[in-house]
Amino acid sequence: MPIxxxxxxxxxxxxxxFEAMKNKNYIKVLDQYAKEGVSALSxxxxxxxxxxxxxxxxxxxxxxxSASIIWSNSNINNGVNIALILQYGHGTGTGxxxxxxxxxxxxxxxxxxxxxxxxxxxxxKA
Length: 126
Prior knowledge:
About 45% of the residues lie in helices and about 20% in strands. The chain is of the alpha+beta class and about 130 residues long.
């Protein structure tokens, strides 16, 4: 008895997906999440003057097979990025140490989760 394989349908959704990728429509989606990240980081940043919290920005870098969101903070004092010393801690001028506060990872985790969920929905939708 021969084996028979029958397939129905077409590749409209596949072609639509590839066309969207070719036209870089995903940049709009990444831009949305990048803005959410800036908002989350700004809200979560410990505030004394508010300068560090208001200094968050982002850029989207694309390569031939990749795209990345890069968040950065422009509050630099004496060559030191204040957002990083808040995160990781720092020594003081008098020999003491100020312990860091992990605020960046908890702020961005929900954004990462939404990105992963959106990506999963895109690759699994019928």
